[in-house]
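Aim 2 progress. For Rab proteins geranylgeranyltransferase component A, the working sequence is reproduced below.
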Amino acid sequence: MADNLPSDFDVIVIGTGLPESIIAAACSRSGQRVLHVDSRSYYGGNWASFSFSGLLSWLKEYQENSDVVTENSMWQEQILENEEAILLSSKDKTIQHVEVFCYASQDLHKDVEEAGALQKNPASVMSAQATEAAEAAEAAEAAEATEAAEAACLPTAEESLSTRSCELPAEQSQCTGPESSPQVNDAEVGEKETQSDAKSSTEQSSEILPKVQDNTETPKRNVITYSQIIKEGRRFNIDLVSKLLYSRGLLIDLLIKSNVSRYAEFKNITRILAFREGTVEQVPCSRADVFNSKQLTMVEKRMLMKFHTFCVEYEDHPDEYKAYEETTFSEYLKTQKLTPNLQYFVLHSIAMTSETTSSTVDGLKATKKFLQCLGRYGNTPFLFPLYGQGELPQCFCRMCAVFGGIYCLRHSVQCLVVDKESRKCKAIVDQFGQRIISKHFVIEDSYLSENTCSGVQYRQISRAVLITDGSVLKPDSDQQVSILTVPAEESGSFAVRVIELCSSTMTCMKGT
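Predicted structure tokens for this construct:
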């Protein structure tokens, strides 16, 4: 936080979401003096990406319905007679109905920490170590007092080892093969010491070894637990907004022309999946996918390639679709001699349009855009930032800072100062009571009150984030990145887009 900022700027931007960050970068590069503030402690606003622990903190923040606001009357001293103040909201009310469901084993322990997380405060660590040392001393004294009484009841080393191995679950004993082999060796040594016949000891050891080998030959699937998700929470990032970028889209062109792309890394979606009649199928996108597809017949492959060729140059043949401009794209596809299987793929997984509301022209435009983006960076037309969608706002903020923009996180704004006669915004008053003048203001809508936005029509969007321990469709390799499309008619009132990042241990799926 900064309690002494310059009092005059050309542009003040409140909120670090993607639109606000792009505007801030553009203004800063054009020579404007930019102040970019955000009351949150992270960049991106509602476009941010979090690790698992960060997501839990974000969920806790929005699940708490406490509207306690600390009264701060310093802003009133900065308002003149010919001015009035528009108070800004201290809580984001655009996100509602946040719920969490956990179907994994909730074996959460207090000492479970995220791998790679920052160390705690040294003072708290020292106090915790002192407490642990005191508890250990007390436990040692109690152990010495009862050592003589329990000495006769203690099992031997071999007995304690065998008992411990019997108490382990089958899954753990199979996964810890290197730990089980020393146990067998210890058992063999004990038998050789108690028996004089070396041949009999060899026979007994040979009877034990095959059992361990049988266990390792039948591995079982590891069950992902809640503690494991927390430990591996930095192995994946979760987006609040799951968006994909067309490889020839306007945003990609902006990233390249502005050199903002050098601040981030991108990855290509390797396959597109479709959910149809209770099963998940891979959608053939490129020419190679079409001809290598085993789920399409030779006739369907010719139909699909012919239709793709037409969609790329549909504007040059208006006579073939002009009579269907008033109908939906779904009805138009039925007239193109496409099988129901191809109609489903084109409508929901290639054009990704609605079956009831999208017109023929809209469907043809979407299909053409899909096909034009194929092959630029990979097998599918979609890209996404490697470390999450929240990288994009941070990249534009970095560019703004390079050209002189000033950034203040955890810095809230109390109100906007508006001139009564001209009804134009003149300044802001921050949490320290400082009045900052500017010519232009850009404000994220989550900072505005409901009364201020009463004339704006908002659309409700339902989003879900799913963390699974496996892929919805077995991938060819661990590096597959998939998008699963489900039509709105089958999923209820909203369409589902699932981005699946496949790995050997965990899968992160995001849907809107």
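The two ends are 34 Å apart (CA to CA). This observation will guide construct design in the next reporting period.
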